[in-house]
Amino acid sequence: MSVWVIAEQREGTLQKVSLELLGKGRQIADKLEEKLVAVLAGYEVEKIADTLIKHGADEVIILDHILLKNYTTDGYTKAIAQIAMERKPEIIFIGATNIGRDLGPRLAARLKTGLTADCTGLDIDENTKNLLMTRPAFGGNLMATIECPNHRPQMATVRPGVFAVPCADDRRKGKIEKVAAQIKESDIRTVVEKIVKSLEDKVDITEAKVIVSGGRGVGNEEGFALLKELAHLLGGVVGASRAAVDAGWIGKDHQVGQTGKTVRPNLYIACGISGAIQHLAGMQESDFIIAINKDETAPIMSIADVALVGDLYKILPELINEIKGYKD
Ligand code: FAD
Questions:
Q1: Is 315 exposed, middle or buried (0-12, 13-18, 19+ CB in 10 A)?
Q2: Is the CB of residue 273 below 6 angstroms from any atom belonging to ligand 1?
C-alpha cells in the first residue's frame, strides 16, 4: 500500500505543483503510515528523481521510454495504468495542470475508480482511513468533501498553488527504481510533430512573491497601467478579478480565483476588488493582504491584514510616490 504523486516534468524540468503535492502527500502518507511514491514518466529524466526524494518521496518509480519524451494521453495513460494495476496504490495525486487534467480522468477510467478534480483540501478520515477530498461546489458557494469508499485507488487532482512547496531536505535518502514502460508506437494515436512555444508574453502569477491585483473598481484598461507601475516597483506582477478579465482590461492569464489561478504570494494588494468567494478561493492563503476599496463593508476588507478605505486612484499614486521616494 502506498500514496502516489504523479510527478510532472516538461522537457526535463519538474513542475512546481509536483513538489507541492509531495508536501501534502507526505502528511497523508504519514497519517496512513504508508510509503510516499513519486511516479516520474518521461525520457532520460533520471536526473530529477533525487529532487523528488529531497522533497518528501520515499521512492521514485521512473517510467523511462523514448515514447514518453513528449506527453501523449495514450502513452502516459498506458504506462502509468500498467504500473498502478501491478502495485495497487491506495491513493494517486495529480496536479491539475493542462496535462494533469487530461491524464487524471483517463487514468481513473482505466483503473475503474473515481476522481475528484480541483481539490483545495486533502485529509484522512480518522475512522475509515478514507481520503477526504474537499473542493468548491455549486459555483464556489459551498465546499464539498468527497470520499471514494468502494474503489481503489482514490484519485484527486489539485490545482497548482493550493499547497506550499515543502523545504528540500538534502539528507533524505530514498529508493529510485527504473521500470521499463511496456508501450509501443502503435499504442499512441497522436503524433507530436513539433512543439511550438507561444510567443505571447505569458505571466505566471502563481510563482510571484508580490501581486498587485485589480478588479472592476479599476474601471478601465488604462487604470491597470497604475497597477503595473506599483507591481514593477515592488518586483511583482499584476493579477485581476474575473470582472476585470471579462471586461477585457487584462488577459485571462492574470485571473485569480476559482476559475483563474490559485496564488499564495508574500504580499497581495487587492485594488477595487470586492472579495467574492470565487476570488477569495484563489488568494486567501497569501501571507499578507492589503485591500484598497471605497466600500469599507466589502468582504475583502474583513480578510485583509491592512484595509485602506478610499479611492484607489488617490491611494495608488501616493503609494507609488512614497515607494519611489524610499527607493531614491
Ligand atoms: P465587484 O464585485 O463589482 O467589485 C468591485 C469593487 O471595487 C467594489 O467593492 C467597489 O466598492 C470597489 N471600487 C469601485 N471603484 C473603486 C475605486 N475607485 N477605488 C476603490 N475601490 C473601488 N471571480 C474572480 O475574481 N475569479 C474567479 O476565478 C471567479 N470564478 C468564478 C466562477 C464562478 C462559477 C462564478 C459564478 C463566479 C466567478 N467569479 C470569479 C466572479 C465573482 O463571483 C465576482 O463576480 C467577481 O470576483 C467580482 O469582481 P470584482 O471584485 O472585481 O468586482
A1: middle
A2: yes
Which is it for the CA torsion 149, 155, 160, 164, positive or negative? positive
pTM: 0.74
91 lines ligand 1 (CB under 6 A): no
Residue bearing the CA closest to ligand 1, atom 20: 293
The answer to whether residues 60 and 174 touch, using CB atoms and an 8 Å cutoff, is yes
Cα(313)–Cα(277) distance, rounded to whole angstroms? 25
User: What is the residue with the minimal CA distance to atom 35 of ligand 1?
Assistant: 139
Omega before 299 within 30 of 0, i.e. cis: no
Which amino acid is located at 58 in the chain? D
Interatomic CA distance for residues 319 and 310, integer angstroms: 13
Q: Which residues carry a binding-site annotation?
A: 216, 241-242, 255-259, 272-279, 293
User: Could you give the CA distance from residue 214 to residue 227 in angstroms, rounded to a whole number?
Assistant: 7
Mutational pocket test of ligand 1: of 142, 159, 227, 241, the residue with most ligand atoms within 8 Å of the beta carbon:
241
CA of 164 from ligand 1 middle (Å) equals 26
- Dihedral pair phi/psi, residue 6, rounded to 5°: -80, 110
Q: How far apart are CA 31 and CA 63, in angstroms?
A: 27
pLDDT average per 10 residues of sequence, the chain (328 residues): 96 94 98 98 96 98 96 97 98 96 98 95 97 86 92 95 93 96 93 76 83 97 95 95 95 92 95 96 94 98 97 96 84
- For 186-189, the CB contacts below 8 A with 24+ separation are 187/67, 187/74, 187/75, 187/78, 188/67, 188/72, 188/74, 188/75, 189/74
